[in-house]
Write a structure and sequence with these properties.
Blueprint: E1 8-9, H1 12-25, E2 28-32, E3 40-48, E4 52-58, E5 64-71, E6 77-79, H2 85-94, H3 110-120, E7 124-129, E8 135-145, E9 149-154, E10 166-169, E11 173-178, H4 181-190
Antiparallel strand pairs: 1-6, 2-3, 2-6, 3-4, 4-5, 5-11, 7-8, 7-11, 8-9, 9-10
């Protein structure tokens, strides 16, 4: 049996039961995705689906850093519980911070993940596969979906809305974030998005 502090590499199939156990035990976990980004994610597991896991993310300043749905197959290591869980959980209790979860959130495929995130938040972070297995993030509002992917109106790092939609395929979505403080600050500064170029008075936004 693995020791409490041991970090275990898993396949997607092996990761799923480990994360479900952490969810049931309300354990603070740490997740690595080698090649996707530097560092790791720390947080609580809210639900585990066929292809994605929903996490409540703990930020570097010991505060809530939003929600994140991660593709299971990208996870390379899991530490459950996090080796610093004792300290981190005490800090969260002192700050009176505790996880709150959506009543429902689909995690079996990318289509369900996007639809669920859009129901939960006015702005989302769409993370897609980039070159050399790295991950690229785009922030904005999802406009509409089709069988192959979805359109999104992006907001720039300067809080300026783009006037043409960006399209993303379902198979390239590696994760989606929502209630992220940075994305919500962009939305607050940018305000409501303007009509897309050529849209006129039409409104194709998801509701």
């Amino acid at each position: 049996m693995a020791s409490m502090a041991e970090i275990l590499p898993f396949t997607a199939r092996g990761t799923r039961p480990l994360l479900r156990a952490a969810q049931q035990r309300r354990q603070l976990v740490r997740i690595w995705r080698d090649g996707m980004e530097r560092g790791s994610f720390c947080g609580y597991v809210g639900a585990v689906g066929r292809e994605f896991v929903l996490m409540w993310v703990l930020g570097d300043h010991l505060d809530w850093d939003g929600m994140l749905a991660l593709r299971l197959r990208d996870i390379t290591e899991v530490e459950a519980p996090d080796k610093h869980a004792g300290f981190l959980e005490k800090a969260l209790r002192l700050k009176r911070i505790e996880p709150r979860w959506p009543s429902t959130f689909a995690l079996d495929d990318a289509v369900g993940v996007v639809a669920s995130a859009v129901r939960e938040a006015d702005i989302v972070g769409v993370h897609v596969d980039g070159e050399a297995e790295s991950e690229i993030c785009y922030i904005g509002q999802v406009l509409d979906v089709d069988d192959d992917g979805f359109n999104m109106q992006e907001v720039s790092p300067d809080a300026e809305w783009l006037n043409e939609p960006s399209w993303f395929g379902w198979d390239e979505l590696s994760s989606i974030s929502f209630h992220d403080p940075y994305a919500e600050a962009l939305l607050q500064v940018a305000g409501a998005p303007p009509p897309l170029a050529g849209d006129g008075d039409s409104d194709c936004r998801m509701r």
